[in-house]
Amino acid sequence: MQSRLAGHDGGQRHQMTDTSSHDGMTSAPIAARRWRFPVSFFPLKFHRDLPRGEKLFLAALLGFVLVTGFALWLATPVTFRLLMRGMRLYLLLPLVSVSVVWGVIRLAETFAGHRFAIFHARAQWMVTTALITSLTIPVYGMFKQFILKARGFPFDPLLASVDRILFFGYDPWQVMHGLFGSVWFTLFLDRAYGVWLPILMFCPVLWVALIHDPLVRARLIGCWLGVWVIVGGVAAWLLASAGPMFYPHMIGPEPSFQALHDEIIRLGEQVRAQGSLLATPMGHNLLMKVYFSGNYLPGFGISAMPSVHVSMATLFAIGGFCIHRWLGWAFVGYAILIWIGSIYLGWHYASDGIVGAALTFGLWKLSAQFAQPFSKPAAKPLEKQD
């Protein structure tokens, strides 16, 4: 991550570029087609068909989400109508992102007086990625709200003890409030936590629009989906926990976490007295109501270890470095802020974010191993000997 990955030696070392003629993920492009795909505010024009390998990759990810969604729909009490409503809700943000990015491209083309073919070559990536990311959260919501709920929360006492070891006998929230405790810093963390969702849905579309190398794009989108499956799915099941804010409600009486809960409520009242709103206590109450009601609302559900918030913020940083160094460091700062906020606001144990970040970095490194065969140029055919 110390050099710009996107486009680095794109035409020499990495053979997976937008104009590559090699086989694999970027096999030779088929003859260009021009067709229209209605999206939000205006039609997209696809001026180039994707190489076969790239189409298969995107189709495989989309197919995985659809098959998983169908299986979870059969295994849970979620009605088809509610599932479709959730999918429409989460379809909005990525398609707005596609529309905004595409609008900027077309505006730039108008001023420049020529077409930026390299961006038009990525239009199908953008639309398919928007569909994949839009469908994933409603599908994951079924797992989190019904399958994961049945697991219970067996690991909270252990995670609380680990945190106290890491922070020399104190609960991490006590340390964070001691260092940063103020109404305005609380509101700042609350807002930073809130913009995570739009960033989550916008980033994948921006990655595929701005990153030159399809191999890097494939790794990032694969890791985005992998975070939900591995971090939010497998690891969350194995290390099932509710988190500090929910400890008194889900696990049992605990003076320190009850004090945290009361402190967040107090800060929320102070923020309200100053004419603003703190989303954290409202979110806490809403999650509790949805949990005990058994209703399906995509994006809801209670799970602490590992932290998907910190995990995805770590992936934002990785994607940022793939575009430009300064963007990567900006998102590193944001990831640290999300980790602090997850502790300060009571959503997570400190170890949740550490494990989430480590798993995400591991997924990124592992994706390089899977992608390695595709980064090698295809062997040239032997010339006919006389």
Task: Note the run of SSEs as H and E.
Answer: EEHHHHHHHHHHHHHHH
Shape: globular
Reported for the largest beta sheet, the result is: 2 strands, antiparallel
Fraction of residues in helix: 55-70%
Number of strands: 2
The number of domains? 1
Unreliable residue stretches:
1-24, 26-47, 378-386
Please, how many helices? 15
What is the average of the pLDDT values?
Answer: 82
Proportion of residues in extended strands:
under 5%
Q: Could you state the oligomeric state of the chains shown?
A: single chain
Key terms for this structure?
386 residues, mainly alpha, two-stranded antiparallel ribbon, 66% helix, globular
Structure description:
The chain has 386 residues and is mostly helical. The chain has one domain (35-375). The protein is built from 15 helices and 2 strands. It has helices at residues 52-75, 80-112, 117-120, 123-147, 156-166, 172-180, 183-194, 196-210, 214-238, 247-250, 255-273, 279-293, 308-323, 325-344, 350-371, and strands at 35-39, 42-46. The chain has a two-stranded antiparallel ribbon. A hairpin with a 2-residue loop joins strand 1 (35-39) and strand 2. Helix 4 (123-147) runs parallel beside helix 9 and helix 7 packs across helix 11. The longest helix is centred in the first third of the chain and has 33 residues, at 80-112. The radius of gyration is 23 Å and the shape is globular. It starts with 34 loop residues before the first strand and ends in a 15-residue tail after the last helix. Mean pLDDT is 82; it is low at 1-24, 26-47 and 378-386.
